[in-house]
Amino acid sequence: MGRSGEDVEVGDIRVACGDADWVAVEWGGGYGEGMKRNDLESELAEISALGQGQVEADALLNALKGGLKHRSNFVVAKAAEVVVKRGVSEKLSDELVKAYERFCKHAVKSDPGCKAKIAVVDALREGAVWVESLYLDAARRRQMEPVWGGRVDTAGGLRCAGVNGLMAVGYGDVMNELAMLLGDEEREVRVGAARLLGDWGDAVGEPLLRLRVLCGEEDGEVLSELFGSILAVNSASGLDFVGRYLIGGEGGKQGGNEGGDDEVRRCAALAIGQSRNGKGLEWLVRSFEKELDAGLRETILMAMAMLRNEDGYGYLCDLIKDADERTAELAVRAMGIYYYDEKVREMVITAAEGREELDEVLREVIA
């Protein structure tokens, strides 16, 4: 095998020998037993290099096959990323499937965090490889890993990747799988499901998104994604639905926000702003003009700026020009998020002319 500290060649396998941290390595179609753990970085660098420059086709495929057979989930994940970058998912579909199946065995030890499995599923999806059973397995897989005081499921991202694959191949019951994700106990999964539906852009998913909101989603990150996706799939009725949550009080009762919960309203305001739906300004103005909470007023003005339309800018500039000092300052800060836009800068400076009390915030925000 060679002396400690020396590198040797064994057939197609390069073996790095060292004094510590020995791990088994599979490379070039075989296994070695003498690679130091700190050589992982060099292996990753070699795989990454395959995604750049000119590489002869057969050599590329052979090298990626070796990478996908590697025992390290980090190396396999990187190889799968290069497969996508090079557009060879279909040519390496068998190797990708085998890699997924291999990391499903003794998964907690072989693939903590599901890093390799997620990358493989993504590569298969990007190549439109029809492996319905694999996507279904990923969509329903749990991987409980030990943590301090108990165990935690680390397969949330894998479930989302699996459903994304099912969507890509037109799986007939994909809505049922999405419903399961929206009801998942893991926050990241609910966020991922909402995002998938929003990116899909089909109004057929709107009822699922609304139902998740109406069931009383309490996590702000999830709620923001739900609102954003509702607006993405149906800009008209979606705005009416989200707007009622923004208003709260009597209007919010129809949407489910009976108490006018501040976090819900904040999420609704920002979702409307991020949608850049010009008609959202009416809802934001209506909410702002009845709002007393300083924090929410600031959020609503920020959402107006995020719309990035002339009417929204005009309303904010009117506040800078005529409102009380505190409100004018909030409006300056809201428009200040686009300080790099010369047109917006000029609008703010012009609106603030003659208001010396705003000089300090102007210097801070747009100087």
Mean pLDDT over the full residue set: 88
Task: Provide the succession of SSEs.
Answer: EEEEHHHHHHHEEHHHHHHHHHHHHHH
Strand content: 5-15%
Helix/strand-derived category reads mainly alpha
Rg, rounded, reads: 27 Å
- Number of helices, counting only DSSP H or I runs of 4 residues or more: 21
Largest sheet: 2 strands, antiparallel
Please tell me what the overall shape is. Answer: elongated
Distance between the termini: 66 Å
Number of strands: 6
Pick out the low-confidence regions.
Answer: 1-35, 249-254
Q: Strands of the biggest beta sheet: in what spatial order?
A: 1-2
The percentage helix is 55-70%
Oligomerization? single chain
Describe this structure in words.
By secondary structure, the chain is mainly α. It has a domain at 309-367. Helices cover 63% and strands 8% of the residues. The protein is built from 21 helices and 6 strands. The protein has helices at 40-49, 57-68, 73-86, 93-103, 107-110, 115-126, 132-140, 156-168, 174-182, 187-200, 206-214, 220-233, 235-247, 249-255, 262-275, 280-290, 294-307, 310-322, 325-335, 342-351, 359-366, and strands spanning 7-10, 13-16, 22-27, 30-36, 144-147, 150-153. The strands form 3 sheets. A two-stranded antiparallel sheet has the order 1-2. Strands 3-4 form a two-stranded antiparallel sheet. Strand 1 and strand 2 form a beta hairpin. Helix 2 (57-68) packs antiparallel against helix 3 (73-86), helix 4 (93-103) runs antiparallel to helix 6 and helix 16 runs antiparallel to helix 17 (294-307). It is elongated and about 70 Å long. The chain starts with 6 loop residues before the first strand and ends with a helix.
